[in-house]
Specification:
Helix content is 61%, strand content 9%. The protein contains ten helices and four strands, in the order βαβαββαααααααα. It has a four-stranded mixed β-sheet with strand order 2-1-3-4. The chain is elongated, with a radius of gyration of 25 Å.
């Protein structure tokens, strides 16, 4: 006999609850026949919450048992529930993977092939630009996180606000191959200070901090990835000057 479930979710002209849609998909994917009941007004939604003593919708019932909301349903089905406060490297992995793909694509479009050294340079340039973009989404939030560990920013706060623009400019200039006399010193400067700051905070002071490298709202832990980012910039700047 096919399993059955009932879901109560908000479906209004101006708002369709995304968690309700996700829960509906989970139930159907798990083989449930779903009685999909819509809450079509704020008054109807509030009345439903009061009747069942719940604070949120959707609410899922299987038989006479109330399972709860979307996250409760995931737990009931044995699926992982993401902790919004958990530390993760996923944003950095995704960014560097995309930077690598873009560097390869640029090489293929420009030369019809990929030369290792040139592709590596493009990867660093694109990665810097993408990292800067994450910071520029909310410069103030980035600066707040950056001030937790950067040695220069702690002495001169405006540096925390200038950093994303400097990183973006250096990345774009490196990608274009123009004004290396400007982009290389910027990379050496911000990469060198950043590497020393991260090394001191993590490996000397043993502080557990979040990295501002992909924006101020990230849960990326400060450590090896942040140090690598800064050393990468520092090394690329030196390479550009020597070349």
């Amino acid at each position: 006999m096919r399993k059955t479930a009932t879901i109560h979710r908000m479906v209004m002209d101006a708002h369709v609850c995304p968690y309700g849609l996700k829960a509906l998909h989970l139930l159907r994917s798990a083989g449930y026949r779903v009685d999909d009941r819509h809450l079509t007004s704020r008054a109807q939604t509030d009345a439903f919450k009061a009747e069942h003593g719940v604070a949120t919708t959707p609410q899922i019932f299987i038989g006479d048992e109330r399972i709860g909301g979307h996250d409760d349903l995931r737990r009931f089905l044995g699926k992982r529930v993401r902790d919004p406060k958990a530390l993760t490297y996923r944003p950095v992995i995704a960014l560097f993977a995309l930077a690598a793909a873009m560097a390869l694509a640029i090489g293929w479009a420009a030369e019809g092939a990929n030369m290792l050294l040139l592709t590596l340079e493009r990867f660093i340039a694109v990665a810097m630009a993408l990292l800067a973009l994450q910071k520029l989404r909310d410069v103030d939030a980035f600066a707040t996180g950056f001030l937790n560990y950067d040695l220069l920013a702690r002495r001169w706060v405006p540096y925390a606000y200038l950093y994303p623009y400097a990183e973006a400019a250096a990345g774009v200039l490196m990608l274009s191959g123009a004004l290396m006399w400007l982009s290389a010193p910027i990379m050496i400067f911000i990469g060198g200070i950043g590497a020393v700051s991260v090394f001191k905070a993590v490996y000397i002071d043993r502080r557990e901090l979040k990295c501002a490298c992909v924006g101020g709202d990230s849960n990326v832990p400060l450590g090896f990835v942040s140090l690598t980012e800064n050393l990468m910039m520092f090394g690329a700047g030196l390479w550009m000057l020597l070349r």
